[in-house]
Amino acid sequence: MVLEGPKRIALRRVEPPRPAPGHTPIAVRTVGICGTDVSIFHGTIPVSYPRILGHEIVGLVGDGDAAPPAGTRVLVDPSVSCGSCRLCLEGRSNLCTAGWLLGRDRDGGLGEAMLVPSTNLHVLPEAVSDHAAPSIQMLSTCLHGQAMCGFAAGDPVAVVGLGVTGLMHVQLAASVGASPIVGITRSADKRRLAESMGATHTVDAEDPETEGIVREITGGGAAVAIECAGKVATLARAVRIARPGARILAYGTITEDEGAFPYYDLYYKELTIVSPRAATCDDVVAAIDAAAAGGVDLEPLVTDRVPLERAGEALAAGGGAHTLKTVIDVTGGA
Fold it and tell me: Considering the entire predicted model, what is its pTM?
């Protein structure tokens, strides 16, 4: 599926990727669609055209000289780093000054075959299915963000926004013993799902008493407030429901450049705000382990599976009220 311009995508036959040193051919099986893909499709994130989208990629290793051997099922880490800049040498390869992303800066996974830097492949255990595995890429960024916050057992946590990543954050918080865990969203379906995944309480985001309810549940405010909706208003809510001395995980990608915000609370509560970008190799390995061990259940997050030829429809729809994760079955074998 080739994006030829904003909102213009079509199934095309293209030249197969040519072998290159340090790269491994991949036969793509499944690709997850996320907000970045939707933004690129609509033109709000600029790319050069034509571009093949897709960065949450699962496939089989093709013939080549590099390990793992041909036929091995792998997850592709789409964030490619140089390995030699200051940030890479500090272990912060996710911030590499010369880095790039498959599916944005170079062609991604919405096609039958692709070429991937061999160092960006991770073998997948059988316990994780083809259609659940693409979500590991998002899970790795959630783990990266929570590590920046320094979670501890017994911390009261509030999660603002219960989409895919919000539900992942709920599960990760539960896995380390955070309590209580409060999920906040307008959707009754997502509140029920959050409760099945470890949220001790959920609150309707449209309730005018939402913030007071959260402060009451948490005994004065959350020790960690996680914003997953990507809006100025929801980040402001995270600040308001945080207790003094709390940590704010600004996980959602906010593209707005204006809006009311409780700046004084940053001073008065002495809050710490962290904002993660992408994940490191270690985060990806940890995410695979968490998914394989059942510490995080990815299966219920996949609500839609469509064939490659319908990828354009999925991107145009951008997720609906009842949609969480859409996965493209490239081979039909998932």
Answer: 0.94
